[in-house]
Each structure stands twice: as structure tokens, then as C-alpha cells.
Design goal:
The structure holds 2 protein chains of 2 kinds. In chain A, strand 1 and strand 2 form a beta hairpin. Chain A has 15 helices and 2 strands. Helices cover 77% and strands 1% of the residues of chain A. Chain A has a two-stranded antiparallel sheet with strand order 1-2. Chain A is mainly alpha-helical. Chain B is mostly helical. In chain B, helix 1 crosses helix 9 and helix 5 crosses helix 6. Chain B has one domain: ABC transporter involved in vitamin B12 uptake, BtuC, CATH 1.10.3470. The model of chain B has no long low-confidence stretch (mean pLDDT 87). The chains are: A mainly alpha, B mainly alpha. Chains A and B meet through helix 5, helix 11 and helix 14 of A and helix 4, helix 9 and helix 11 of B. Chain B: Keywords: Amino-acid transport, Cell membrane, Membrane, Transmembrane, Transmembrane helix, Transport. Chain B: Belongs to the binding-protein-dependent transport system permease family. LivHM subfamily. Chain B: GO terms for molecular function: transmembrane transporter activity. Chain B: It is found in: Cell membrane.
């Protein structure tokens, strides 16, 4: 299968909700569109060799930030969304220099602890974040005078952002920056000796992934209209890892395919709710044992043999 | 008041130490961060719920069975699923996530989402100075001390224990010395699961048993182990005591969530200032 064909398939999938014209299908498609930039952010972190469990926290910061700026300060949603995306990025730039000095397992643990603290703050600071009862009354998104009310609108909005995020990540991968990340990952000493500032590049990746997660969170907040802390917990980190593992983490196409495949899974298994988790775990296991490099590697292998 | 805080902290920390020891053993030897450790704790509790709660077996036999069955499960999982991934930290971590998800869902399918409780094998309290100590927690603590002592002696004097320490310190040199790493991986994983299963089994009557019961102990083991230094056994003991006692103090004065936040903040600070934990060896 040529890449062109894969994009053709994705384009057809993106148009599919209109042919089915069901609210429910649109909802799932919108969730996929929101998750794609999240998965891409995780993918960028994996590219620099760091598994970040802080992505849900940045999504939460973007979501709660957008909601509160719009509810409390009455800012136009567009402005609230941009500001909260920037807020997530700024926080990443502040904590990044400390976190990214640390590598491997300790980085995972550190970002995990950071994510838990942020989540506990969402839970405990009830007067601001609404605690476990949730935050209600988030206005609908609007672009100037155009109000996004129906799920179809959010689907298009999410899709546009997902496409931008994908194009940006792909541009990073193909540019010199991508080459620098690869060289840092493969041989940091050598890469530094020819003058690349390892820490600065890592902070840049962390900040970009936080910004993407923040915007995703904002779109999610305006779409769902209500926020609770458990949407931004450990489970979401696991989902992002699963998406990257199943899709394939060594290419940007991987998280895209992974999200399309994994996000609808719980919905498909709705009637067998208790089997959801089981099938989820088994899929992950099968991919780890038999298809280590994910779906993308299957496509590439096929391309080579053809 | 002070005695009560101290006793509460000590009772809590002993279980943390046992959980953290297993967690750190797997990491020290196989370099796998085992996200399924909480689910192994749950398996021990489920066995006790079935054998002691439903079938009426004696409590200690049921708890021992919980440990042994969990260990057997761990040995099988290690051989089939984890061994092929040794050396690949990320894949090992993801595999443990998969194992955790599957164990959780199996319990969810067979027992349902509801938390279940059982009759307590020991009841009543006794007093230590002005502190009131429940008997069931006392029994758990005594068992934990015995388990710790046996584990210590095993590591210090048995051939397998010494080999494990050698592999944890330097896998290459130890394999040159003729230590077969496969057997050590199997033993380490089995013992870690045994510890987690025993901890879960002992705690089962104290709390309720359910599919999500492993998450909090897992979280605590995580915190303890980072604090003490991943892969360090003295670190796990010290970290467990430190977290148990500080949590007891903070819970008394600030409430349990604040205590949890505080323990995470402590961990963040420790890792930032000493990236390998208090007792950890230098990063690889």
C-alpha cells in the first residue's frame, strides 16, 4: 500500500460520518479527532526517547483553562482556547528544564507524579474546578459570530486541528529538527559534540506536545460542555501509549492509525462493557509480542514486498 | 496522640515496604517498571476472599495460598510474556500495563465491579501507651515483619538470593561468573509476586476486595520506590517507613488527599535534587 492510498483511506474514513449521518457516529469521530493531536504529542515525546505521563495533565490544563477563562472572565472562546494552549506550553517550558534533565524510568515517574498532583488539584480545589462533581456551564465555542452548536461543527473543528497537528509533526519529522531528535536519541554524546543543544531541543519537544495537548483539551471542553478530573487521569496516559504501540511509534502515521483504531474500541464493545478492558489488554499484548513496531510496520512491509 | 500517629504510620508502612520490595526487585533485576504490581496484590486478596471468605479455610492458610498462587501466576507470566522483552524498558513497561488491565478485567468479569468484604478473622483492639491498635492490623504487621525477616535472610544467605544481588548490581559480570540470568529473572519475578500476593492476602479482611483495589497500593509502592531509589532494597525499606510515617502525620493534620499530594511533592523534590532517589545508585 502506497502512502497515497493510506491517506485516501483516511480521507474516506473522515467523510464516513456524513454518509451514515448518525449523531453517535459523529461523536466517536469527534473523539478520534480530539485524540489524534494528543497521540501525536505523545509520539513526539517518544521520538526524543522520553515516555511522558504528563500529557493528560496538559490536556486538563487546556480544558479547565479554556472553560474557566470563558465562564469566569467571559472571554471569547477563541481567545480562551489560544490562551489556555499557551498556558499549558508555558507550564511545560517552566518544568521542562527540570524534568528533562532526568532520563528513562525516572522521567516516567516524575511526569507521572506531576500528572497526579495536577489531577489531585482539579479534584480538591472544588471552588475553582468543581471537584469530582465536575465543572458545568461551559459555553459553546464560537468563531466570531459563528456558534458551534452541533456535533458536526465540532467534528470539523477537531478534524482541522488534527490535520494541522499532523502536518506540523510530519514537517518536524522531515526537517533538520527531526534529524536532530533522531541523532540525540541514537547517540547523544556524538550529537552534542557537533553542537546540538540536547536539553533545549528536548524542552522544545515537551513544549510543543504540551501546547497540542492543551488545545485538544480546550476543544474537548467546549465540545463536551462539562469537565471532571477523571477524564485527565492515568487511564488517558495508558490510552496514548496503547495508541502509539498499536499504530507504531516510529512514524507519525502510527499514532494517526492507532487513534482511528483504538478510540472507537470502547464504543464498539459497549454491549459487552465488562469485556472492553479484557479485549483492550489482549490487543495490546498481541501487538507487543507479534507486531512490535505497530500497524505502520505491517503497511511498510507490504510496500517493500510489493 | 503522638503514639497513635506513630503506630498508624508504622502499621501502614510495613505493607508499603513489602509492596515496594517486590516492585524494586523486578526493576533492579529485569529493568521492568511493573505497572501490574497492584493487580498482583489484588490477586492475593481475591484468593483469600474465595478460600477464607467463601470456603471458610483457616485465614493463614488462605493468605499463604494467596501468595503462592500469585507467585505461580507471576512465574508463568514472566516466562511467557516478560522474558522476550528484557532489555527493552519501554516495551516491558507497556506489557506490564497490558497484564494489569487483563487481570483487572478478569476479576471484573468474574466478581463484578462491587467491592466485597468478608468476616474479620481477628477483632478487638489493644492499647500501646495511649494508642489504640486494632488486633487485625497487629496481626498483619507481625506477619509483615516475619516476611521481611525471611526475605532478608534469603537475600543475604541463600545462593539464589546472592545471585540476585549480583545480577542487580552488574548483569554482565554476573553472567560471566556463571549465573544463569533466566533462572534469576524467574525467581525474582516469582518472589516479587509472592510478596505482593501475601500483602494483598493479609490486607484482604482489613479493607474490601474489588477489581480496582490494587491501584492505591501500587501508587504507594511507586512513590516509596522512587523515594528510596529504584532497584535499591534498603531504599525500599527506608522509603516505606518514611512515607508511612509522614503520611500518618499529614493525614492527621491535613486530611488524606493533602497527604497524598504532599507525598507526591516530596517525591518530585527528591527526584529533582537526587535523580536516582535517596539510596539509588548512579543512573545508567
Amino acid at each position: 500500500m502506497k502512502p497515497v492510498h493510506i491517506y485516501l483511506v483516511i480521507a474516506v474514513l473522515a467523510l464516513l460520518p456524513w454518509t451514515l449521518d448518525s449523531q453517535y457516529v459523529f461523536h466517536i469521530a469527534t473523539m478520534i479527532a480530539i485524540m489524534i493531536p494528543m497521540a501525536l504529542g505523545m509520539n513526539l515525546m517518544l521520538k526524543i526517547g522520553q515516555l511522558s505521563m504528563a500529557q493528560p495533565a496538559f490536556m486538563g490544563i487546556g480544558a479547565y483553562g479554556s472553560a474557566l477563562l470563558a465562564i469566569r472572565l467571559g472571554l471569547p472562546p477563541m481567545l480562551a482556547l489560544c490562551l489556555s494552549g499557551i498556558l499549558a506550553a508555558v507550564i511545560a517550558t517552566i518544568v521542562g528544564p527540570v524534568f528533562l534533565r532526568i532520563k528513562g524510568v525516572y522521567f516516567v515517574l516524575l511526569t507521572y507524579a506531576f500528572g497526579q498532583i495536577i489531577n489531585l488539584v482539579f479534584q480538591e480545589w472544588t471552588s475553582l474546578f468543581g471537584g469530582n462533581n465536575g465543572l458545568y456551564g461551559i459555553p459553546k465555542f464560537s468563531i466570531f459570530d459563528l456558534r458551534l452548536t452541533a456535533v458536526q461543527h465540532y467534528y470539523i473543528f477537531g478534524l482541522v486541528f488534527a490535520a494541522i497537528a499532523y502536518a506540523a509533526m510530519r514537517a518536524i519529522e522531515r526537517s533538520d529538527i527531526g534529524a536532530i531528535y533522531q541523532s540525540l536519541n541514537e547517540n547523544e554524546m556524538l550529537s552534542r559534540s557537533i553542537g546540538s543543544n540536547a536539553l533545549a531541543w528536548r524542552i522544545a519537544a515537551f513544549t510543543i506536545s504540551a501546547f497540542t495537548a492543551g488545545i485538544s483539551g480546550g476543544i474537548y471542553a467546549f465540545y463536551i460542555g462539562f469537565l471532571s478530573p477523571d477524564a485527565f487521569g492515568f487511564r488517558l496516559s495508558v490510552d496514548l501509549i496503547v495508541i502509539n504501540a498499536i499504530g507504531g511509534a516510529h512514524s507519525v502515521l502510527g499514532p494517526l492509525l492507532g487513534a482511528i483504531l483504538v478510540v472507537p474500541l470502547p464504543e464498539v464493545l459497549r454491549d459487552a462493557r465488562q469485556y472492553q478492558l479484557l479485549i483492550y489488554g489482549l490487543c495490546l499484548m498481541v501487538f507487543l509480542i507479534f507486531i512490535r513496531k505497530g500497524l505502520v510496520s505491517l503497511i511498510q512491509r507490504q510496500r517493500k514486498s510489493a | 496522640m503522638i503514639e497513635q500517629i506513630f503506630v498508624n504510620g508504622l502499621l501502614a508502612s510495613l505493607i508499603y515496604v513489602i509492596m515496594a520490595l517486590g516492585f524494586t526487585l523486578i526493576f533492579g533485576i529485569m529493568r521492568i517498571v511493573n505497572f501490574a504490581h497492584g493487580e498482583f496484590y489484588m490477586m492475593g486478596a481475591v484468593v483469600v476472599l474465595f478460600l477464607f471468605g467463601n470456603l471458610g479455610w483457616p485465614f493463614f492458610i488462605a493468605a499463604a495460598a494467596g501468595g503462592i498462587i500469585t507467585a505461580a501466576l507471576g512465574v508463568i507470566l514472566e516466562r511467557v510474556l516478560f522474558r522476550p522483552l528484557v532489555g527493552d524498558e519501554l516495551s516491558g513497561m507497556i506489557m506490564s500495563l497490558a497484564v494489569g488491565i487483563i487481570l483487572q478485567s478478569l476479576v471484573l468479569i468474574s466478581f463484578g465491579p462491587a467491592e466485597q468484604s468478608m468476616a474479620r478473622p481477628f477483632s478487638g483492639t489493644w492499647s500501646f501507651f495511649s494508642a489504640v491498635v486494632p488486633w487485625d492490623r497487629t496481626v498483619v504487621a507481625l506477619c509483615a515483619v516475619v516476611i521481611l525477616a525471611v526475605f532478608y535472610l534469603f537475600l543475604k544467605y541463600s545462593r539464589t538470593g546472592l545471585a540476585m544481588q549480583a545480577v542487580a548490581q552488574d548483569p554482565q559480570t554476573s553472567s560471566l561468573m556463571g549465573i544463569e540470568s533466566g533462572a534469576i529473572y524467574l525467581a525474582a519475578f516469582g518472589i516479587a509476586c509472592l510478596l505482593a500476593g501475601l500483602a494483598g492476602g493479609l490486607m484482604a479482611p482489613v479493607y474490601t476486595v474489588g477489581p480496582y483495589m490494587g491501584e492505591l497500593p501500587m501508587l504507594k509502592a511507586f512513590v516509596v520506590v522512587i523515594l528510596g531509589g529504584l532497584g535499591s532494597i534498603p531504599g525500599a525499606v527506608m522509603g516505606g517507613l518514611l512515607i508511612g510515617l509522614s503520611e500518618s502525620v499529614l493525614t492527621t493534620f491535613l486530611g488524606s488527599t493533602a497527604a497524598l499530594i504532599a507525598s507526591f511533592v516530596i517525591v518530585l523534590l527528591v527526584v529533582i535534587t537526587r535523580p536516582t532517589g535517596l539510596m539509588g545508585r548512579s543512573a545508567r
